[in-house]
């Protein structure tokens, strides 16, 4: 188990007797789950959280830290930063590595003693917030000492439940506060409505409707405690609002059994306790009864839920057995852990779920039962996250993801697939219709449990929805014009790639007319490429390129999305051969790639662009448009240059520390990039059923595939000095091409690399040895 300790180890031992926490040693952990460090990415630009979550769990029970008036900003997108000294409380929903803030539903905080403040307070005014010490975390578990109330707090989570355990100081009264006002991003009028009540059996239930990134969003809860209540009060802190039987904010005990309003906080009293207090919380997107049923669906106390979740994590992570030096093993297993958090379960235990139409639906799609998932950051995750899940998760889970996307299209008021969705609601964030490559990739790989013909209809409906993001102009002109639509250059090339994946699936299904139509659209990327400058550029309606033109400029709402011409000029992953011809051939392509990585940024200020981090020249690893670029040397016949660049990226962008991610993890994409790269191959063009071979960063990896086959990667002689691939064999036979197919991996077998100190400039250099390109290579 990886432990990160902040301070006061003596206090930890005194307050939580019986909690088994193994110290970090120099030996490699024996189980995959013990190699995970949830604190990686919780500082710097990673935006991850350290709290408790089960694989793809609906509940992410994690601390929210005090950051004063800047709480709503970009750096606190996960509600937490490792360096913050103060905790506000523990809320039940969080994003892992997103570039936008939201969630933080139903904040719980313990208070001890006779005085119970209802506000968090700040540096000048006391409140229920507390300084922290002795923070530890592992997969499915988090603990911290709250030094102000003297409480040891522990968290664990199941799929739809979160369980708190609090050890209060001996002889002091124990209280829990439930704050329904708190949200990670402080939107104006953020809480549209909320409610709370005590049911006759003592179960606490309630809900809130939130104005936020996805709005309006509804969420419900149910809570049961391990000790009986000795008292409670429900209070509205909304100004100038009084309720019948209520004396006003902060004026004596409140004994109402229910309350509704826009600013509610609840206090639960337990007297003095002789053992830790447990609070079990279930969530639902449907209703309070659904939350109660979700509570019942996962029986057991804190230790039972923790043990079950630990086993679930070990099984999920164990799909890849990794042998590597401890720092790399920690990096890769933590990356795998981060890759298995989303998309999160959204349907209740009985199968019901709330859709983007705000209606409740059953867990069926065209007669097929499935578990609804939400939290799709598709502009990020189509690249490597979802392709990774097709290899390491059961077919049924991958079918759930695809069926959830198609169900989202069927219940969308606009009839299109999700773009960036969470809590069943659409945010319309980012560009493209990247549910399309996720669906196509799964269908082309033969994932069972998907009606691919019906899915193709949903894909085409999204691609033909003219009001979305300039698609009407794109279909008419062959590009998105910048005088009609912002970020037009990026949209043109991303639409073209998505269209290619539609064509690929249509071909497989025998729909020739659809295939031909979208194959034509897949070449529209050319219409925004300026061969004179060698860059992708935005064009106006009259066909001219917009001027002035600066390929290094990054401005939101400009020609590009979270990037500039340097990154986006490489985004035609389905037709790199076509791009290379426009650039003047392999030699000029390699020179341009080198110019990108070696660019001198000393006179450029990107501080205004939050998402721009992890720069190596104009390569920006902290954001997704660059993620495939290092592999493009292999497309140009120089795979040893890919190997050099991968070493440069891994060494500079990942480390096993809180600031160990160079950019937002983006719900697993940054992490999935590392997992694939560590294994020695990467899906540059999902939908091609090919992976481009790079170089491994682990000594050995044994993958258990969804079909039960085992695929092993071995790196003989791997070291810092031996950074180049000398030879590759597949099942004992020389592999002379620079890619491996999905079918070859799923058949099982062994991919063996022989590493050496000098580059092999003859391996996989010929045109026939290069990865897929839609229009081939050469003149």
Order of strands across the widest beta sheet? 1-2-3-5-6-7-8-16-12-11-10-14
- Beta-strand level of the residues, as a percent range? 15-25%
| CATH class category of the largest domain | Alpha Beta
Straight-line N-to-C gap: 55 Å
Signal peptide: 1-22
InterPro entries: 6-hairpin_glycosidase_sf (IPR008928), GH-type_carb-bd (IPR014718), GH92_a_mannosidase_put (IPR005887), GH92_N (IPR041371), Glyco_hydro_92 (IPR012939), PNGase (IPR050883)
Protein name: Alpha-1,2-mannosidase
Domain Glycosyl hydrolase family: 291-756
Structural notes for this entry:
The chain has 779 residues and is of the alpha+beta class. It folds into two domains: 9-313, Beta-galactosidase, Chain A, domain 5, CATH 2.70.98.10; 318-769, GH92 mannosidase fold (2-Layer Sandwich), CATH 3.30.2080.10. Helices cover 25% and strands 22% of the residues. It contains 19 helices and 38 strands. The protein has a twelve-stranded antiparallel beta sheet with strand order 1-2-3-5-6-7-8-16-12-11-10-14. Strand 11 and strand 12 form a beta hairpin. Residues 1-26 and 240-253 have low confidence and may be disordered.
Topology summary:
Blueprint: H1 9-15, E1 52-53, E2 60-65, E3 86-91, E4 107-112, E5 130-138, E6 141-146, E7 151-157, E8 161-167, E9 174-179, E10 191-198, E11 204-210, E12 217-225, E13 231-236, E14 258-261, E15 264-269, E16 277-284, H2 288-297, H3 302-317, E17 320-323, H4 326-339, E18 344-345, E19 353-354, E20 360-361, E21 364-365, E22 368-369, E23 373-374, E24 376-377, H5 378-381, H6 385-392, H7 395-410, E25 420-422, E26 425-426, H8 435-444, H9 452-463, H10 471-477, H11 488-508, H12 512-521, E27 529-530, E28 535-536, H13 565-568, H14 576-583, H15 586-597, E29 615-616, E30 619-620, H16 632-635, H17 639-653, H18 669-679, E31 681-682, E32 690-693, E33 700-704, E34 710-716, E35 724-730, E36 733-734, E37 739-741, H19 742-746, E38 749-756
Parallel strand pairs: 34-38
Antiparallel strand pairs: 1-2, 2-3, 3-5, 4-9, 5-6, 6-7, 7-8, 8-16, 9-15, 10-11, 10-14, 11-12, 12-16, 13-15, 17-33, 18-23, 19-20, 21-22, 24-25, 25-26, 27-28, 29-30, 31-32, 32-37, 33-34, 35-36, 35-38
Helix pairs in contact: 4-18, 7-8, 7-9, 8-9, 8-11, 9-11, 11-12
């Amino acid at each position: 188990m990886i432990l990160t300790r902040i301070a006061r180890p003596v206090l930890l031992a005194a307050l939580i007797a019986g909690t088994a926490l193994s110290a970090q040693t120099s030996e490699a952990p024996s189980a995959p789950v013990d190699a995970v460090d949830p604190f990686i990415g919780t500082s710097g630009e990673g935006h991850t959280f350290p709290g408790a979550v089960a694989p793809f769990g609906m509940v992410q029970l994690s601390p929210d830290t005090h950051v004063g008036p800047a709480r709503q900003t970009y750096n606190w997108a996960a509600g937490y930063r490792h360096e913050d000294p103060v905790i506000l409380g523990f809320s039940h929903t969080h994003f892992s590595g997103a570039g936008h803030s939201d969630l933080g539903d139903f904040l719980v905080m313990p208070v001890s003693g006779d005085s119970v403040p209802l506000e968090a307070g700040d540096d000048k005014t006391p409140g229920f917030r507390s300084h922290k010490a002795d923070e530890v975390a592992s997969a499915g578990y988090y603990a911290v000492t709250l030094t102000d109330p003297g409480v040891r707090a522990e968290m664990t989570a199941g799929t739809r439940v979160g369980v708190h355990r609090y050890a209060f100081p001996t002889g002091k009264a124990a209280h829990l506060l439930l704050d329904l006002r708190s949200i990670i991003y402080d939107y104006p009028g953020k809480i549209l409505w909320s409610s709370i009540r005590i049911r006759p059996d003592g179960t606490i239930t309630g809900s809130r409707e939130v104005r936020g990134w996805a709005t309006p969003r509804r969420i419900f809860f149910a809570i049961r405690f391990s000790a009986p209540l000795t008292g409670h009060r429900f209070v509205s802190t909304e100004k100038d609002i009084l309720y019948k039987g209520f004396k006003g904010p902060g004026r004596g005990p409140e004994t109402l059994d229910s309350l509704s309003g826009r600013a509610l906080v609840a206090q639960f009293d337990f007297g003095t306790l002789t053992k830790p207090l447990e609070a079990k919380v279930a969530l639902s997107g449907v209703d309070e009864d659904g939350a109660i049923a979700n509570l019942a669906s996962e029986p057991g106390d804190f230790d039972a839920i923790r043990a079950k979740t630990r086993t679930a994590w070990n099984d999920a992570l164990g799909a890849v057995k990794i042998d590597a030096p401890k720092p790399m093993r920690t990096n890769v297993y933590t990356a795998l852990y981060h890759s298995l958090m989303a998309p999160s379960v959204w349907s209740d235990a009985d199968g019901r779920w709330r859709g983007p139409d705000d209606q409740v639906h059953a867990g069926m799609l065209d007669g097929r039962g499935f578990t609804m998932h939400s939290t799709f950051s598709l502009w990020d995750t189509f690249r490597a996250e979802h392709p990774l899940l097709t290899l390491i998760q059961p077919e049924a889970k991958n079918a759930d993801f695809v069926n959830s996307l198609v169900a989202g299209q069927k219940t969308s008021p606009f009839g299109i697939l999700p773009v960036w969705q969470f809590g069943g609601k659409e945010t319309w964030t980012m560009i493209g219709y990247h549910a399309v490559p996720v669906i196509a990739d799964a269908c082309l790989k033969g994932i069972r449990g998907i009606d691919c013909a019906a899915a193709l209809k949903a894909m085409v409906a999204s691609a033909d929805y003219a009001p979305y993001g300039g698609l009407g102009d794109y279909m008419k002109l062959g590009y998105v014009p910048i005088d009609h639509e912002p970020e037009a250059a990026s949209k043109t090339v991303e639409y073209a790639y998505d269209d290619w994946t539609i064509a690929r699936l249509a071909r497989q299904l025998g729909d020739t007319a659809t295939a031909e139509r979208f194959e034509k659209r897949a070449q529209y990327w050319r219409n925004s490429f300026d061969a004179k400058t060698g860059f992708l550029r935005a064009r106006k309606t009259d066909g001219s390129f917009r001027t002035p033109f600066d390929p290094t400029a990054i401005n939101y709402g400009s020609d590009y999305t979270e990037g500039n011409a340097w990154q986006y000029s490489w985004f035609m992953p389905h037709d790199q051969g076509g791009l290379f011809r426009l650039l003047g051939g392999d030699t000029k392509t390699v020179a341009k790639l080198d110019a990108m990585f070696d660019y001198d940024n000393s006179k450029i200020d990107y501080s205004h662009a939050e998402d721009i981090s992890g720069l190596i020249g104009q390569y920006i690893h902290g954001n997704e448009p660059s993620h495939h670029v290092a592999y493009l040397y292999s497309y140009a016949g120089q795979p040893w240059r890919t190997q050099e660049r991968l070493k440069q990226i891994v060494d500079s962008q990942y480390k096993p520390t809180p600031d160990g991610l160079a950019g937002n993890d983006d719900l697993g994409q940054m992490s999935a990039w590392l997992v694939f790269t560590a294994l020695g191959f990467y899906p540059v063009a999902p939908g091609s059923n090919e992976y481009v071979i790079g170089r491994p960063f682990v000594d050995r990896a044994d993958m258990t595939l969804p079909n039960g086959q085992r695929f092993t990667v071995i790196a003989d002689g791997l070291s810092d000095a031996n950074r180049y691939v000398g030879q590759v064999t597949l099942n004992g036979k020389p592999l002379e091409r620079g890619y491996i197919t999905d079918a070859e991996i799923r058949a099982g077998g062994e991919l063996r690399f022989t590493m050496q100190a000098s580059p092999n400039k003859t391996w996989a250099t010929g045109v026939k040895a290069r990865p897929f390109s839609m229009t081939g290579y050469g003149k």
